[in-house]
Amino acid sequence: MSVTAATMPKPETGTVLIVDDEEDTLQSYARMLRLEGRTVFTADNAEDGLREAERHHPDAVILDLRMPLMDGLAFLQRLRAREAPRATPVAIVTGDYFVEDVHGAALHALGAEIHFKPLWLEDLVALASRLLTVREGRPLHPLGFCHRAPDDTRS
Length: 155
Description:
By secondary structure, this protein is of the alpha/beta class. Helix 1 crosses helix 5 and helix 2 (about 45-55) runs parallel beside helix 3. The chain is built from five helices and five strands; from the N terminus they run βαβαβαβαβα. Strands 2-1-3-4-5 form a five-stranded parallel sheet, sandwiched between helices. The chain has one domain (about 15-135): Response regulator (Rossmann fold). The protein has helices at about 25-35, 45-55, 70-80, 100-110, 120-135, and strands at about 15-20, 40-45, 60-65, 90-95, 110-115. The longest helix is centred in the last third of the chain and has 15 residues, at about 120-135.
């Protein structure tokens, strides 16, 4: 069976900004989303992430919560201050399983959804697709949060 342009899967589109201070995580996420056909911009700290957001106006942001100098919550507050309310869908990806106890209400009010590390690559692809769907005007999740249990062990 030959593959024609009509039968080939359509590559995904959309621009994603990834902000994470862990270089391996940053590069792995970026590589995987680029393989999926996404345009990806990266920043290894929140200040650079804000500059990238200003420069490229991404369709979605995937953001680490715990970073030096400025954390993900401060990044999100500054991002929201610069744009229309909740204009850019944002997912916080964190290893802090107590984030909702401390920052949950603020993150929810700013329109972010929360995911826990480790974020498996297939989950990353699904997350990016969902965020970009929100950008197109469809709802993310009724409560604004999506969780995967910390004890999820995949082989």
